[in-house]
Write the structure tokens for this entry.
Amino acid sequence: MPRFTIPTAEFVLSCPDVARAPRRPLPEIAFAGRSNVGKSSLINSLTQRKNLALTSRTPGKTRLLNYFLIGGDLGYFVDLPGYGYAKVGGDTLREWGRALENYLRDCPRLALVVVILDVRRGLTSLDEQMLDACLVYRRPWLAVITKSDKLAAQARNHAVNSLSGPLISRGARAVLPYSSLTHDGREIVWEQLLSAFRENS
Ligand SMILES: Nc1nc2c(ncn2[C@@H]2O[C@H](COP(=O)(O)OP(=O)(O)OP(=O)(O)O)[C@@H](O)[C@H]2O)c(=O)[nH]1
Ligand SMILES: [Mg+2]
């Protein structure tokens, strides 16, 4: 049992861009990462809901900005489309990149970007581009190292420790291991998310 009450969560809408986002002036926390890294699963695990955000074994499931209202009026979680899905090439890929960048640039109340990395893969060049965009648009961000259940404790600690230095030096607020399977890390991640909501409400 968690020692704190997990805020409520409800799906609000999906939209292609910020112009069609929900109108209530509440802070937003966006979940970004490579396609299939586990963004939607992280949202489900955090909110203790099995199918709030749609997940899939097949990359490229989340294609729009998906808004969830958290805690009634705390703010929104935004499940972003994953980047780097190899099967969508050319124009579609560029469109996704543009949609993500436009979101980072235009979202008026973006409180925090949660950049999700796979503990087994670390930082890829597309993640680096995402971090560069956070820097350019001055968006505070937090690194969540997910799928931590996929490695034994020693290997996991080693992976997280070796990622921490470079990520902190690029401006990460914190670097937190997580497993959406076991929910390990849930309270610590919520602490960061709730303080981001509070600072921006
Ligand atoms: N073992 C384990 N599997 C995970 C974890 N997080 C996600 N997965 C699995 O990884 C796959 C992709 O998860 P999603 O949450 O759909 O990933 P996504 O980043 O939202 O993917 P797109 O929407 O396609 O960009 C699913 O099969 C999940 O069950 C985790 O912490 N541990
Ligand atoms: Mg998804």
Notes: Residues 33, 35-41, 55-57, 59-62, 82, 146-147, 149-150, 179-181 surround guanosine-5'-triphosphate (ligand 1) (CB under 6 Å).
